Recover the amino acids of this structure.
């Protein structure tokens, strides 16, 4: 009886939820097929076309609308996201590994690490740039100060993911390895790492995506050369054309591709995880 | 059994977790090439002891010697002591073959591939798992996992293997088969097994010698029959689960308990007065019997348990304490008892073991 009322309500709720989640993207994708170069970033669609996609890749005849200045920014952002991903994940795994043993001041250190994702981004960005300019006296670059700000931001996420994974990890396989005369370092490489790999993959995904579209911290910390989110923001101040929407669709598709790769890698290591779970059941 | 130099020795080993003392100044040495069972109830510190010997944990005080060398400060992977876990702890991402080969492949000394293959095959053969080399750990049964864990340890040719309740995760049938097998395998190799268990039957059946651990101390270390016949304190008698224990007072050469007064010939030092008589030495009489061999304990019959070779009769005393009688069927047909009926239990007082505070002084 109860479910007859509750189910439709929940269904509507879920529908609305998904609409809010994907509504902007759907509108964006539709408008990206606006006619060009006259068509603007609003409804109605004058005529369906792929003009703005061609425009993005410089395949259209020259017009008064300048090509989107995102090429270099995209490369920069991808490089920065990759650097951040590697650093934050390595640090995250190492820090989480350290927390498997209780040590003096563990609580304080935990909050200090997690603080990195709590403090307002604009302030971190501003602070980083002030520190670089006035205290240390170095120039700001996307690959130095902004990179640092990104690592500080993404490291806690990687850390928390790894903490959750290692929390469930049964340490007796490591002890078994030691008792076979295998050093702790080799044990980590040959036993621990393969078994926590699904978690490492998640930490990497977090770090990459968070860094890739990071705005507030990068705004002040990146210096002269802009990252992708900054470059896109910069175009807003002139005039908005549907080529930004086309670009948005492209980057979203890229994100999906990234998720697909993650999904495949995850699927491959899930077999291992299953085996691990079965062993735990017996224990 | 031949006596030889201890393969490992503990000197005053103490381990504390906060306020809890898991190991309380343990002094212990184990003979080379023997099977030692370490018996203790849960919480007696038996797993802590194994972990300290293996090097997974450091003792707070005390030294550990192995093959004449002080290994107290040596990390686990440099000790050369094997360890078999209750949950097997196989490497789930490796095949059976690679599980067994793991130590040879990744150890400090390089072993040629051909030798690895030979040794791994020999080891897998020994535990009777030939043909399963390419399986993954999730494709084999619990008993097979236990054998892999054993083969993985033994392939390193350790002089000492620590087994932490290795049969605890197996069902009863398999447990008995593995008991025999563990003993046979050990006898074939020149290796000492230190087998931790909470089961008194397992300890008595398997060990050449049995060490009884209680509250972080080894209270008795002896052959199984000596432990069975002459438990050194009442707690040991209690773990053995083969004695009816009675509280009472020891005074002027006789013990006063629920069964009246019984003459006492010798007394063992203990922190309280306890009278112990084995289940299979306790006999059942009618309430009007006149030919009792010793003291008379009035009881009410509760139930019986058929064990195949013997029957356990359960009785209740006036103060609601359960008393057991083990009647071995080779001694003839058991009596026909009716539930709720009153009987008298009696025994030969010479067969009782008496523990007393007096003897401690």
């Amino acid at each position: 009886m109860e479910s007859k009322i509750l189910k439709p309500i929940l269904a509507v709720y879920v529908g609305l939820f998904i609409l809010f989640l994907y509504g902007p993207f759907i509108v964006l994708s539709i408008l990206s097929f606006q006619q060009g170069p006259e068509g603007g970033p609003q409804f109605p669609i004058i005529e369906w076309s792929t003009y703005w996609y061609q425009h993005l890749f410089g395949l259209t005849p020259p017009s008064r609308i300048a090509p989107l200045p995102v090429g270099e920014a995209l490369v920069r952002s991808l490089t920065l996201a990759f650097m951040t991903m590697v650093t934050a994940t390595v640090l995250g795994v190492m820090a989480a590994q350290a927390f498997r043993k209780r040590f003096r001041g563990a609580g304080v250190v935990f909050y200090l690490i997690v603080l990195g994702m709590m403090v307002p981004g604009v302030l971190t960005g501003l602070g980083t740039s002030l520190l670089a300019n006035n205290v240390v006296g170095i120039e700001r670059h996307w690959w130095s100060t902004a990179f640092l700000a990104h690592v500080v931001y993404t490291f806690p996420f990687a850390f928390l993911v790894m903490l959750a994974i290692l929390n469930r990890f049964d340490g007796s396989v490591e002890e078994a390895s030691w008792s076979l005369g295998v050093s702790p370092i080799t044990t980590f490489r040959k036993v621990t790492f393969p078994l926590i790999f699904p978690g490492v993959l998640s930490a990497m995904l977090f770090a990459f995506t968070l860094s890739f579209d990071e705005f507030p911290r990068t705004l002040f910390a990146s210096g002269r050369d802009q990252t992708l989110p900054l470059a896109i923001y910069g175009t807003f101040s002139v005039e908005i054309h549907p080529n930004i929407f086309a670009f948005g669709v492209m980057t979203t598709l890229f994100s999906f591709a990234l998720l697909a790769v993650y999904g495949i890698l995850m699927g491959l290591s899930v077999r291992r995880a299953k085996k691990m779970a079965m062993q735990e059941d017996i224990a | 059994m031949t006596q030889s130099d201890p393969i490992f020795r503990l000197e005053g080993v103490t381990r504390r977790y906060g306020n809890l003392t898991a190991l309380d100044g343990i002094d212990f040495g184990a003979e080379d090439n023997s099977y030692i069972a370490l018996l203790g109830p849960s919480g007696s510190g038996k797993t802590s002891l194994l972990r300290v010997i293996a090097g997974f944990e450091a003792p707070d005080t005390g030294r550990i010697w192995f093959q004449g060398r002080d290994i107290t400060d040596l990390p686990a992977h440099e000790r050369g002591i094997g360890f078999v876990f209750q949950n097997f702890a196989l490497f789930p991402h490796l095949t059976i073959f690679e599980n067994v080969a793991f130590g040879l492949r990744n150890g400090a000394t390089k072993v040629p591939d051909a030798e690895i293959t030979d040794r791994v095959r020999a080891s897998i053969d020994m535990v009777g798992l030939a043909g399963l080399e390419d399986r993954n750990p999730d494709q084999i049964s619990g008993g097979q996992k236990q054998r892999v864990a054993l083969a993985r340890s033994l392939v390193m040719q350790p002089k000492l293997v620590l087994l932490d309740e290795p049969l605890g995760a197996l069902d009863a049938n398999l447990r008995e088969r593995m008991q025999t097998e563990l003993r046979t395998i050990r006898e074939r190799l020149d290796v000492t097994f230190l087998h931790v268990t909470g089961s008194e039957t397992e300890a008595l059946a398997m060990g050449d010698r049995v060490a009884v651990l209680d509250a972080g101390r080894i209270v008795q270390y002896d052959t199984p029959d000596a432990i069975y016949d002459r438990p050194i304190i009442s707690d040991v008698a209690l773990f053995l689960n083969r004695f009816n224990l009675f509280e009472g007072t020891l005074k002027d050469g006789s013990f006063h308990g629920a069964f009246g007064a019984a003459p006492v010939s010798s007394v063992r030092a203990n922190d309280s007065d306890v009278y112990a008589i084995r289940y299979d030495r306790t006999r059942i009489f009618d309430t009007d019997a006149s030919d009792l061999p010793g003291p008379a304990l009035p009881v009410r019959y509760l139930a019986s348990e058929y064990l195949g070779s013997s029957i356990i009769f359960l009785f209740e005393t006036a103060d609601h304490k359960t008393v057991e009688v083990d009647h071995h069927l080779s001694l003839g047909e058991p009596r026909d008892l009716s539930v709720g009926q009153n009987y008298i239990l009696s025994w030969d007082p010479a067969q009782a073991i008496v523990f007393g505070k007096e003897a401690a002084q």
User: Anything to note?
Assistant: Chain A touches chain B at residues 170, 172-173, 175-184, 186-187, 190-191, 194-195, 272, 274-276, 278-280, 282-283 (CB under 8 Å).
